[in-house]
Design brief:
4 helices; globular; about 200 residues; VC0467-like; about 25% strand; 9 strands; alpha+beta
Length: about 200
């Protein structure tokens, strides 16, 4: 009886293993890209909240301002200054950017086809002068509205850095803040519940 020679385990070619490794790295990269995209588009702490300028904010145009943040993502943020009425009294100076654009916050007792509903604060939002003029001059005008011309915006992570540097404080939204005289809004906003930041 002859002794059988033990068979050596079959090994996969190195090139094949490398190909599988490349596919795994590509799949991981795609997953991380997807997660990063979700992270960039996820609403952040100041989204639909107020931010209140502090004494550390050195820019004079923002001194004593309160901003309603219409959108706060990691990739960008934008809002409107609440307490800077224009001399005409027709609208509020929403900020130093997009000075030719109009924006409207309004109550939801009625809405236009262009109304974007902000469910968490029970407000409607419209962008664009033509749509706003048509809405406000029609039979179904809202009981309450605030019109802005211009806005304030931040680039990627810029607002987070300014908040981290204590230039702004995030406070909870309260629609009753709009009922105050413009020169009292900053003081009243400082008394609203502070939102604890996570950065």
């Amino acid at each position: 009886m002859t002794e059988e020679t033990p068979q050596q385990p079959e090994t996969k070619p190195k090139a094949k293993r490398k190909r599988y490794g490349d596919w795994a790295l590509l799949a991981l990269a795609a997953f991380l890209f997807w997660v990063g995209g979700k992270y960039d588009y996820a609403p952040q702490e100041a989204n639909h909240k107020y931010i209140v300028a502090t004494e550390k904010l050195s820019k004079p145009e923002f001194k004593g301002t309160v901003v309603f943040v219409i959108q706060h993502l990691h990739r960008s943020a934008a809002g409107f200054i609440l307490n800077r009425p224009d001399k005409s009294g027709d609208y509020y100076d929403g900020g130093p950017l997009e000075k030719d654009r109009f924006y409207l916050l309004h109550s939801l007792d009625t809405r236009a086809p262009e109304t974007l509903v902000l469910d968490d604060v029970n407000l409607g939002f419209i962008e664009g002068k033509e749509a706003i003029d048509k809405f406000l001059s029609g039979k179904n005008a809202p009981k309450w509205h605030r019109l802005f011309k211009g806005d304030i915006s931040w680039g990627p992570r810029q607002l987070e850095r300014e908040i981290s540097d204590s230039k702004w404080e995030i406070v909870d939204f309260d629609q009753k803040l709009f009922d105050n005289p413009d020169n009292k809004i900053w003081d009243k906003a400082k008394r609203l519940p502070l939102i604890k930041r996570t950065y």
